[in-house]
Design goal:
The protein has 99 residues and is mostly beta strands. The chain has strands at 21-29, 32-33, 38-42, 48-53, 59-64, 67-75, 78-86, 90-93, 96-97. The chain has one domain (21-90): Sandwich (Immunoglobulin-like), CATH 2.60.40.10. The chain is built from no helices and nine strands.
């Protein structure tokens, strides 16, 4: 079982986007959110960094360092990935579509 906190689009209290880099989004298939997908954060070289499970509404969130990242989603209905560049602190939305 994944020990990550519940994934929502709402950030935890006290999150300072002038200091934190947050990658957030939704996993979808055929336009519908996918709950229970495994979402992996890969660094700029493709190395595994972290993993969370999407909420029932398909949402995920990672606190990361600035840089180039890939978000990869895995679910029984398919896989997908999307690149995201976080050029500094702030909120960086990225959605992933499963195929």
């Amino acid at each position: 079982m994944c020990g990550a906190p519940e994934q929502t689009q709402e950030l935890p209290p006290g999150t300072d986007l002038s200091k934190h880099t947050v990658l957030t989004g939704t996993v979808r298939t055929a336009g519908e959110p996918v709950g229970g997908a495994f979402v992996r954060l890969l660094d700029g070289t493709g190395e595994f960094t972290a993993e969370v499970v999407t909420s029932a509404s398909g949402q995920f969130r990672f606190f990361a360092a600035p840089g180039n990242w890939t978000i990869r989603a895995l679910h029984q209905s398919g896989t997908g990935e999307a690149p995201v560049t976080a050029d500094g602190p702030g909120l960086f939305p990225v959605d992933v579509t499963l195929a």
